[in-house]
Amino acid sequence: MELTSDAGQGTPESVVGVDSSADQKDKGTDKQTETPNPWMQMLPFILIFVVMYLFLFRGPRKKQAEHKKMLGSLRKSDRVRTIGGILGTVIDIRDDEVTLKVDESNNTKIKVTTGSIA
What we know:
This protein folds into two domains: 19-73; 76-118, SH3 type barrels (Roll), CATH 2.30.30. It is built from two helices and four strands. It has helices at residues 21-33, 38-72; strands at residues 79-81, 87-93, 97-103, 108-113. Strands 1-2-3-4 form a four-stranded antiparallel sheet, with no helix packed on it.
């Protein structure tokens, strides 16, 4: 018994998806001469820098500006909280100092700097 097979018959050009060796050499040299655009290589780093700037620098500046605006609008009888967690009512405001009434029954007052008001 002799087995015959059609596999392996035909030339490489007749096989779908296979180019001749001369065509492959030409395509290989074209790809080697192309250089990528340097700006496209730097684009991910630029995008990362922009995102870091927005999260690390712009957010705290905005929050600081809102805090400064709040301190500028302080008036007598406003309820405030200090950075230490003390709650009080503003009874006097000076340049860099605020007097807070902490306890109504004992008439306890404390003086704090404006920077210590949260």
